[in-house]
Amino acid sequence: MNITDITLTQNQLHTLLAARDPDAALVYLYLRCGNSPEQMEQELGLCEARRGRAVATLRQLGLWQDNAPRVLLSQEPPQYTEQDVMSAMSSTQDFPLLVGEVQRIMGRILTTEELKILLACRNYLGLPMEVINLLVCHCKERLRKRGNNRNPSLRSIEKEAFVWAEKGIDTLEEAVAYMQSENLRQSQLASLMKLLQISGRALTPAEERYAQKWLGMGFDREAYQMAYEKTCLNTGGLKWAYMDKILASWHTKGLHTGAQVRSGDRGAPAPATGAARIAQQQTQRVQSGSAGLGEFEREAIARMLREHQQEQNYTEEG
Fold it and tell me: What secondary structure, in 3-state letters, does the chain show?
């Protein structure tokens, strides 16, 4: 194994740490040292599944360089007909299985127009059956977390399918990594909104751009709290642009924790105590495996893994 000195940018380091994925960090460092991807599993002691999840996570983080660029898809798929649907139902084995599974998840029979959308996800976008199943579960779970227990529309699922296809999410590992990344991002965003005392409404597009920018910088909860308090003391309330300047300044100086800010910025407020400190400790809890995923997503992932294992057993026995 080749081991050489490497240099990581501040953004790369914060991105790896925020992902909380030891395998992804190990693979990234291994490849940055100039080692061959073909020897990765053997030299790092990673099984195929762990390697696949690590690579999928790095892709979602923008730290994995594909040889071929993604081809942007038109948002207008071919106009499938009722005859196309009937042909797919009668001439293939996977499409009827896909329809049955999606209907089970949705708890109802799909209309012909909805079957056309499902056919486009499979044929035009090229998403495998297990990935589409997870996609539907993800859309349903996302609505549930927003307090809406209704099923997502097939049009909204189609829109999300285009996002997945553009990102190259076409394997079980890629889908799981993306869902975990999205759920972690939403959890962090909700925590930040609570800290900023925003409730009962969604962020405006401009506010969300600020929030996502700050989350990408890799601050801990105490640092956000200190920036918010400093903003309120100096401006009389939450002024997004003012708080952005504070955090950008700290980010440039490499101050990303409350302790670092206190030692490097004399104007920072005192550290949080009591309930705020407990919340901080909970926020910093390391997440692994399927942590952060909803019940629909966890059930779908477990079912897909069982089916994959059964297929592998059948292949080995044959």
Answer: CCCCCCCCCHHHHHHHHHHCCHHHHHHHHHHHCCCCHHHHHHHHCCCHHHHHHHHHHHHHHCCCCCCCCCCCCCCCCCCCCHHHHHHHHHHCCHHHHHHHHHHHHHCCCCCHHHHHHHHHHHHCCCCCHHHHHHHHHHHHHHHHHCCCCCCCCHHHHHHHHHHHHHCCCCCHHHHHHHHHHHHHHHHHHHHHHHHCCCCCCCCCHHHHHHHHHHHHHCCCHHHHHHHHHHHHHHHCCCCHHHHHHHHHHHHHHCCCCHHHHHHHCCCCCCCCCCHHHHHHHHHCCCCCCCCCCCHHHHHHHHHHHHHHHHHHHHHHHC
Residue reference for tokens 């949705």? 106
Query: Which of these ranges, 5-19, 34-48, 62-76, has the smallest mean pLDDT?
Result: 62-76
Q: Which residues of 8-40 are buried (b: 16+ CB within 10 A; e: fewer)?
A: eeeeeebbbebbbbebbbbbbebbeeebeeeeb
Confidence of residue 274 (pLDDT cuts 50, 70, 90): very low
pLDDT tens, position by position, 117-133: 999 999 998 899 999 99
Q: Is the pTM of this model over 0.70?
A: no
Distance between CA atoms of residues 284 and 244, nearest Å: 22
CB 104: neighbour CB atoms within 10 A?
11
Contact 218/256 with Cβ under 8 angstroms? yes
